[in-house]
Design a protein that fits this description.
Two copies of one chain form a homodimer. Chain A has a single domain, classed as Mth169, Chain: A. In chain A, 36% of the residues lie in helices and 24% in strands. Chain A contains two helices and three strands; from the N terminus they run βαβαβ. In chain A, strands 1-3 form a two-stranded antiparallel sheet.
């Protein structure tokens, strides 16, 4: 979940400004967003994935200012 | 960047508690963390990747309570 490109991201800008002062170079932009890990038991069915999309859209993100992506990661 | 497993995550727990009230089922745990997108120009060399690791460890994360992973994603 990341702030939309047209949304100001003061936290990302603060990190971007701090990098050269700390000796890090080569980064031209930083955006700060959120990451949610949802643990699921059982198989990832298309229905479940649709439900996770609905959660991300209605509960986890603010669709006015944020975009999100859903990624499935098998647990080790 | 995610809170370590032994660290309490009240935001994640709040989301977990809200899901059934909103009609979502099948999620057994939720953890909330952060996501940083660093935009780089040029090639991702091993040196650059090592530097991004150092940034994540020293500036972006709090290694006492958080773990992090670095992933390279080509821009579209």
């Amino acid at each position: 979940m990341m702030p939309k490109p047209e949304i100001l991201d003061p936290q990302g800008k603060a990190v971007l400004g701090a990098l050269p002062r700390l000796g890090f170079e080569g980064v031209v932009d930083v955006r700060q967003g959120k990451r949610f890990e949802l643990e699921i038991t059982g198989d990832v069915t298309p229905e479940l994935l649709a439900q996770v999309h609905a959660m991300a859209e209605t509960l986890l993100s603010n669709p006015v200012i944020e975009t999100f992506a859903v990624r499935v990661e098998p647990t080790a």
